[in-house]
Amino acid sequence: MAANxxxxxxxxxxxxxxxxxxxxxxxxxxxxxxxxxxxxxxDAVQPVVSxxxxxxxxxxxxxxxxxxxxxxxxxxxxxxxKKIWSPYYPGSDAAADVTAYVIDDPQAExxxxxxxxPVAQANLWQNVTLVTSVAGNTFTGLSGQAITSPTxxxxxxxxxxxxxxxxxxxxxxDITGINNWVRVTFNAEVFRAGITSxx
Length: 199
What we know:
Layout: E1 12-16, E2 26-31, E3 44-47, E4 56-58, E5 68-77, E6 82-86, E7 98-103, E8 108-113, E9 127-131, E10 146-151, E11 158-163, E12 181-186
Antiparallel strand pairs: 1-8, 2-7, 3-4, 3-5, 5-6, 5-7, 8-12, 9-10, 9-11, 11-12
């Protein structure tokens, strides 16, 4: 089987836990126009906790509940002089607060790539650490986030719910090699309290 190639793409929705029909529910949230960090489609986001503003920001820690997964935004562009839709927020160019669309269904399930691994059968239902070291792509708007280090820590943001093994030979499907693709669901999220996973 071909080796998995490391090319992280953030968190891509694929369904819901338990096989329920996915609704890919998008909630509207706000990003402060003063926030200067880019947020890409598929990035995990969290509430801003320094003050009670109700804003969100790109997830920067593995100890805070997530607000969900960012899926695009609309904002009044200062450079274009009109309201635009964008798959990512560039971290500037907003004349006012940004309307973000966030997947926050607590049963949502995503595919994501692992930075090391393999994340295999023994890691099913364990919690995983968020990796934010790869920048998103400003051409496609896609995230560069990934996961790593399956463990039992209750504050970690995602939980392993399955594996990607088809079609055989495709990138990410080698469950015996590093950088495989994994199905995850929320663990610590505003609508879903984090739990200590099985060991």
